[in-house]
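Lab notebook, design round three. We kept the backbone fixed and only want residue identities now. Task for the bench partner: fill in a sequence for the structure below.
Input structure tokens:
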């Protein structure tokens, strides 16, 4: 596998920064489920003008889009289950850290996209860094009501789901003819089912939920722009580089989230976070060299 061009690496790292930014916006809110649902559902307003400008993706990509929409609904359900039973600091890094290795295995089995030994090593080191960095937070936020075994089950199941939709979208965007059109179509329909699911689970508090979202929509709009930009850049990059490499590079968002937390939220960084950071940087370097 040839070295990944530096502009693509930098673009995906910027996408990771965008991903961390909209997650930080969600973290700043009081109701994370509603904020997540609002960010993704309001993506409709961001995606529609993009779709009107770019046009519809090629017909060959629609089966992948439909499959991705169904898989994303499973992702949201598993995400809600993971956060219901376990701490964010435990479940998030497991989901994001395990997924790239599963993407690499899936890419090899399903689309015959073989990585070099060096690229495999880079994916493995980066995944280890993501998990190490992320789990440094879990010990500081232990919820006594958490069910660790259920949380782990939901988190690992979601890692598989993330890997599946990443491979599906990687295939879909390559036959779409236009990465912007594919991403805009996906975001046009992606978030609304999750918003309806969140509201359905609050039968006696829907008016309260709507009032909360009314006050948060300007922030959520910024998060929607960042979310669509993040995944759109990643999808574009998948048309120029192996899906597994892009998936691994995108998970450096965990590093950016840790830096945002340390610089703006005054969260402690610590030795374990430092070790995770070094592993992530080493993994990025190895992937860059291919």
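Proposed sequence:
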């Amino acid at each position: 596998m040839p070295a990944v061009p530096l502009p693509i690496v930098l673009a995906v790292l910027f996408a990771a920064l965008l991903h961390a930014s909209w997650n930080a916006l969600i973290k700043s809110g009081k109701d994370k489920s509603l904020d997540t649902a609002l960010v993704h559902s309001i993506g409709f307003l961001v995606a529609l003008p993009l779709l009107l400008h770019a046009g519809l993706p090629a017909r060959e990509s629609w089966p992948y889009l439909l499959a991705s929409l169904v898989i994303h609904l499973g992702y949201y359900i598993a995400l809600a289950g993971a956060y219901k039973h376990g701490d964010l600091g435990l479940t998030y890094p497991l989901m994001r850290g395990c997924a790239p290795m599963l993407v690499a295995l899936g890419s090899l089995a399903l689309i015959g996209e073989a990585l070099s030994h060096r690229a495999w090593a880079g994916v493995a080191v980066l995944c280890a860094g993501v998990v190490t960095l992320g789990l440094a937070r879990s010990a500081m936020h232990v919820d006594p009501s958490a069910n660790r075994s259920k949380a782990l089950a939901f988190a690992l199941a979601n890692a598989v789901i993330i890997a599946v939709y990443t491979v599906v979208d990687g295939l879909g965007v390559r036959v779409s003819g236009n990465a912007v059109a594919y991403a805009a179509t996906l975001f046009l329909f992606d978030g609304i089912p999750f918003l309806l699911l969140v509201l359905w689970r609050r039968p006696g508090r829907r008016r309260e939920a709507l009032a909360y979202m009314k006050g948060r929509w300007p922030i959520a709009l910024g998060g929607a722009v960042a979310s669509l930009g993040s995944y759109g850049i990643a999808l574009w990059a998948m048309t120029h580089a192996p899906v597994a490499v892009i998936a691994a590079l995108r998970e450096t968002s965990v590093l950016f989230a840790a830096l945002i937390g340390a610089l703006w939220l005054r969260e402690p960084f610590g030795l374990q976070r430092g070790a995770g950071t070094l592993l992530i940087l080493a993994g990025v370097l190895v992937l860059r060299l291919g």
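Keep this in mind before ordering anything: The chain is about 80% helix and 0% strand.
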